[in-house]
Amino acid sequence: MNYMEVTMPNYSYVFNFEEEFVHQDTRVWMTKNWKYGFYYVGIYMIFIFGGQHYMQSRPRFQLRGVLAVWNIALAAFSLMGACRTVPEFFHVLRNYGLYHSVCIPSFIEQDKVSGFWTWMFVLSKLPELGDTVFIVLRKQPLIFLHWYHHVTVLLYSWYSYTEYTASARWFIVMNYIVHSAMYTYYAIRASGRGVSIPRWVAMAITCAQLAQMVTGCAINIWAYQLLKAGDRDCHISDFNIKLSLSMYFSYFVLFARFFRKAYLERKSGGLKKCSSADMTAAASPGLAKVKGGE
């Protein structure tokens, strides 16, 4: 296929900051500064475990208002990211098919809107580490899935951007959509306005996360088969596929295990009752940070 003949999605409006986006400059920056991701992860790990030790003998912070604002901001960002990347995703699927969506990155098509929000997605993995700050300061349970997910997603996203991994189109769109619902759920619980959210909502978000992991594994397996069949035009490396598949499979196992423990295990006479903190954790990639919606 002649990639220069590929048409662009019909965006109703393009912002100036999107129009001025230059993907080559961001790739150069990420390539030169890839070590920063490991520095941030190191600081993050020191903070969460050092912070937990520091808070052991100290009263927990409430931070109800700050937490609500934080979740509203992340929900709004995720919703905006979804609105700007979904059109390109479905445009590609509808007009060029599954192969193109997995193997041809949007940057080849010079789609600045999708390119900008791909860049924002990668950068957002750094401030999202702030979710853990609330867990530590509020002395909430910090499960392995939480910090493992944050660390691996940040490092993988930064690495993949330097390669312009084409299959990331799938991962980014799925993540934006699920995070839109997830952070909206958190914002409502954190508002403390007495709003009662049905238990099935948390379960539905968890199921969406599980579906995300299954889809991620399927896309990676298919891309791997393409490479093994000798397809040299598929813009994804063998090493990247192995990293991504390992991550998605491990997430699926951890999510499935948590879902079973939180919702399906039976105690005397009925379903196990899980705490609100557990429900929050189950609905997200390890974000066990809000107990009782606080």
UniProtKB/TrEMBL annotation:
| InterPro entries for the chain | ELO_CS, ELO_fam
Q: Name one GO biological process term.
A: fatty acid elongation, saturated fatty acid
What does the record say about its membrane topology?
A: Multi-pass membrane protein
The answer to whether UniProt assigns keyword Oxidoreductase to this entry is no
Keywords (alphabetical) are: Fatty acid biosynthesis, Fatty acid metabolism, Lipid biosynthesis, Lipid metabolism, Membrane, Transferase, Transmembrane, Transmembrane helix
Return one GO MF term: fatty acid elongase activity
- Catalysed reaction equations from the record: a very-long-chain acyl-CoA + malonyl-CoA + H(+) = a very-long-chain 3-oxoacyl-CoA + CO2 + CoA
Q: Which Pfam families does the entry mention?
A: ELO
Top-level class of the enzyme under EC nomenclature: transferase
Q: Where in the cell is it found?
A: Membrane
Tell whether Chaperone is among the UniProt keywords: no
- What protein family does this chain belong to? Belongs to the ELO family.
Output this protein's name.
Answer: Elongation of very long chain fatty acids protein
Q: Which gene encodes it?
A: ELOVL1
